């Protein structure tokens, strides 16, 4: 069976690592898989029965850029020496200098660049030249691809293998409502909403998280958050800390979601039928969450707003309660299916070309 080394960059969340696990889950039994990740969340890989190791990012290491690049090249080279994989898969939008050095020193190992689209316009274009480091480029699709104005959208189909949007979890993997709530330690009765907007202050309506929480609680909807510091600041009402990976397996526990529009959270919410109000994070350096969320709203799959502050949260939550189920049903009808299996097959096809 082939051997695969999965390398994830250090993004703002767990998107890169989760996408690699989506591929790994759909590889045939017996495929040797190993993860090398710059994400401090990498221990979750062990839950999948996959071996892993951690490589600190430049920021976590405290090293200067040049020193870290040398460390990165040496560490990747050591892993390639030790494992001799048929294929290396790097998921990220910025292949690190040093990866090319390590790959050039190990010509038997093929390489695939897994690269999502929806880059902000006129951003990151020089990175496309790094496709030359790889034997293939794989692009997990985006339900909002029609609104993509970034550099990757202009790349010809013959230069990249495009698959349907990728999620770790499929609709058939969802636990039912009662089991999901029990697994997360949530009340069995009453409506609940998942608020996934990153860091915030739940006690201030001048903050996106706080505005969402207040509006939901005023309408008798319990608030569920994933950040312990947010839950610890709660002083009234139903605020629950939910911790599980992958949380999307338990989406049936929630009646609604108020979420940012990063690749994973966006596609999980739409594909898994969770009525969602997106509040895109427009401060990202590259990911065009605004365009992604606006397209979903125009398509009638979800709601989108640039902010919940200034008194907007209440009416928007009312609309989510009123229209959420209808929007979620439209999103499910538009779902082209999960591209993870096709991506895994493509990766193994590339691996098959290793001498």
Quick structural summary:
This protein is an alpha/beta fold and 355 residues long. Helices cover 33% and strands 16% of the residues.
Itemize the secondary structure elements and their pairings:
Layout: E1 3-8, H1 15-25, E2 32-37, E3 51-54, H2 58-61, H3 65-83, E4 87-91, H4 99-104, E5 110-114, E6 136-141, E7 161-165, H5 177-184, E8 192-196, H6 208-218, E9 222-225, H7 228-232, E10 239-241, E11 256-259, H8 263-271, E12 276-278, H9 289-299, E13 303-304, H10 313-334, H11 340-351
Parallel strand pairs: 1-2, 1-4, 2-3, 4-5, 5-6, 6-7, 8-9, 8-11, 9-10, 11-12, 12-13
Helix pairs in contact: 1-11
Your description of this structure?
The chain is of the alpha/beta class and 355 residues long. It folds into 2 domains: 178 residues, 3-Layer(aba) Sandwich (Rossmann fold), CATH 3.40.50.2000; 163 residues, Glycogen Phosphorylase B (Rossmann fold), CATH 3.40.50. The protein is built from 11 helices and 13 strands. Strands 3-2-1-4-5-6-7 form a 7-stranded parallel beta sheet, sandwiched between helices. Strand 4, helix 4 and strand 5 form a beta-alpha-beta unit.
